[in-house]
Specification:
This protein has 195 residues and is mainly α. It has nine helices and no strands. It starts with 9 loop residues before the first helix and ends in a 12-residue tail after the last helix. The site of one fe (ii) ion has 5 residues, from loops.
Length: 195
């Protein structure tokens, strides 16, 4: 922590998210990534609050400043006095795409590895008859891995790069991402229709 930095609360992060993201789908993406980051932090004995908050705000600038994605988030959070650790982590999710900040900490690597993966899990849930993330299994996600037309916007190579950085298997990463999203199924609109 540097002087003048103040640890943000989840409530502050949530208010910022709502202020900058009016789109329902962007908000749901933020909640999904938050859920995953919380799940993984808890599992690994890390700071769940911190990991969750970074997940929540990682795409803060995307709706209003798509051409300055990552950069604007840094400006907004610095102006609010957010700790540099949180800001760096948020920006590093766009490594090689909209930022040159390479993920270094476990928090950063997991954010990088799971951000795109949440999109793949959403699409996998939506093709289930139940439209529920509660029914998604690792193998259903893995089955669609090489199908380039399925969730075409999801860059699998980013997820693979993230898993390699973390030195964890893709199955474990997919499993943890599904579990984290299941915890927030209602919030992300993927609780589905009960059979
Ligand atoms: Fe992003
Ligand atoms: Fe994202």
């Amino acid at each position: 922590m540097m002087m003048g930095e103040k640890i943000p609360t989840r409530q502050e992060a949530l208010e910022l998210l709502h202020q900058y993201n009016e789109s329902d789908s962007l908000r749901k993406h933020a909640y999904a990534v938050e859920g995953v980051m919380r799940y993984i932090a808890r599992k690994r004995g890390e700071d769940e609050e911190k990991w969750g908050i970074v997940g929540l705000i990682h795409d803060l600038d995307y709706e209003k400043f798509p051409d300055q994605h990552c950069t604007k988030t840094g400006e907004i959070l610095r102006e609010k006095g957010w700790p540099e650790e949180y800001i760096r982590a948020a920006i590093s999710h766009g490594w090689g795409i909209c930022s040159d900040v390479m993920p270094q900490t476990d928090l950063e690597k997991f954010l990088y590895a799971t951000d795109e993966l949440t999109g793949l899990v959403v699409t996998t849930a939506l093709i289930r008859p139940s439209k529920s993330v509660l029914d998604v299994q690792v193998k259903s996600v893995k089955n669609k891995w090489k199908d380039k037309r399925f969730a075409a916007g999801v860059d699998r190579s980013v997820i693979e790069k993230g898993a390699a950085m973390l030195q964890i298997g893709l199955d474990e990463l997919v499993e943890d991402t599904i579990r984290g999203m299941q915890e927030v199924a209602e919030l992300i609109g993927l609780k589905g229709n009960p059979a």
